[in-house]
TrEMBL record:
Record protein name field: Gamma-glutamylcyclotransferase
Pfam families, sorted: ChaC (PF04752)
Keyword entries, A-Z: Apoptosis, Cytoplasm, Golgi apparatus, Lyase, Neurogenesis, Notch signaling pathway, Transferase, Unfolded protein response
GO cellular component: cytosol; Golgi apparatus
Keyword flag Cell membrane: no
InterPro entries on file: ChaC, GGCT-like, GGCT-like_sf
Membrane-crossing segments per the record: none
Length: 191
């Protein structure tokens, strides 16, 4: 079974896997439109995390993890709690295209998507408003700023050819609000 991650799963899957591949899925764009009151926020200050929006011609980069044997039940149980129960995400099957040109055919992968029907869905907002919300939000997995910066770093270092205007515009807005925090591990640890 392959599982595609496009948010915190790209740097912190939290389950055992056999292999991982960087690549993309088509027909979806990544958006910071899902609220989070557990991992990256609280009931008083919900964080902003990513979900996927169906969009013709769009492409979302991330990581697909292969889980085999006993890893399958354990990883799906873990992800059901992390993504569905606590996050409000539903599952879908998508075609994952590995970055490696020699990988062959696309791979069917399971992906978690938060829809507008779930109670934590926040929907669209300006990049500045999203950045301002991220700055004041923190949950049991850490500060929402860390989530944004780690995702931007993943895209920059593992998918340098990919465009993600939404993600990088929010990062820019955050930097303009808190320039001293940009990419400094010491600052993130202090938050």
């Amino acid at each position: 079974v392959w599982i595609f991650g496009y948010g915190s799963l790209v740097w912190r899957p939290g389950f055992e896997f056999t292999s991982r591949k960087v690549g993309f899925i088509r027909g979806y764009s990544r958006r910071f439109w899902q609220g989070d009151t557990f991992h990256r926020g609280s009931a008083k200050a919900p964080g902003r995390v990513v979900t996927l929006l169906e969009e013709r011609g769009a492409c979302t980069w991330g990581v697909a993890y292969e889980v085999c044997g006993e890893q399958i039940a354990a990883s799906l149980q873990y992800l059901n709690v992390r993504e569905a129960v606590l996050g409000g995400y539903d599952t879908k099957l998508v075609k994952f295209h590995p970055q490696d040109k020699d990988a062959g055919e696309p791979i069917l992968a399971l992906v978690y998507i938060a829809t507008p029907q779930n109670p934590s869905y926040l929907g669209p907002a300006s990049e500045e408003d999203i950045a301002a919300q991220i700055i004041v939000s923190s949950g049991c997995a850490g500060h929402n700023i860390e989530y944004l910066l780690r995702l931007a770093d993943f895209m920059r270092y593992f998918c340098p050819q990919a465009e993600d205007e939404h993600l990088f515009s929010i990062e820019e807005a955050l930097i303009s609000i808190l320039p001293s925090l940009y990419h400094t591990e010491e600052s993130l640890e202090e938050i």
